[in-house]
Amino acid sequence: MSNLELFIRYLREQKRYSERTTAIYTGVLVSFFRFADLGEDGRESEEVQPLTVRAYMANMMEREFSPRTVQLHVSAISSYYRFLMKQGLCSSNPTGLLIRPKAGRPIPDFYAREALNNMLDAPADEDDFSRYQAYVVTHTLYVTGIRRAELTGLRVSDIDFARMLIRVRGKGNKMREVPMTEALAGDLHRLVEERKSLSGGGELWVDAPLFVTSKGNKLPLSYVNNMVHAVLDGTQGILGQKTPNRLRHSIATHLLHNGADIYSIKELLGHSSLAATQIYTHSDFKTLQKVYKQFHPRAE
User: Are 81 and 42 in contact (CB under 8 A)?
Assistant: First the structure.
């Protein structure tokens, strides 16, 4: 049995990797073995030098593979040689001292502000509770920028109409207060009143979930996905995936484009560090570049 076959069996039986992941690792290693002229099964791969792996990385970058893909290949090669070392089949890992390319974080996708305004300005169907609740869920996600899991955890008592804010339990059970617009406050008030009428006109238990299923239970996360998709699907100008996370990206990006400072956006989103929020500045810079090239008298 070749070293590659031993490694693949190790991934399947001990690491319990999926067939897809195992196939990816296999493809990476076969590609590397071919490049290094080691044979497709890697029978002569025991003592490969770091220069060989570095040349493989350079070849991938010359072929315009993304940094993330190069990282994946180096990680697979590194895993292979760590396995060989544990088995006593080689003495060193040729990837150990290599500097890997930084993959960077992708710029988050967001919806056009005009498209979301069209959706929010359209009259909501208040006669159908499920459709109205889906609209309010979408409205809440965009206006507040809260996470999907934070939304499903909201209780009736978390809405403070007097102070125009929502108390949100974030990651690590950290509490933060998020402001809401008058329009959202109106929608949430109508939703609560509708809940009361559906339950016989009595008062709602203050710790009851704010958004509920048809049986009055807390919304599963998958329900939120379906609600957002249903509301955005019929809106002109909403392109690409229709997800709660893109609504969160959208409000962060729109606030930044309108001049909000990055620290305020960090607090709104509930990020634990500024680094997580700074990804939106890349999106803002892309907009600046576009405007610069379009209107600067000396731009080519």
Answer: no
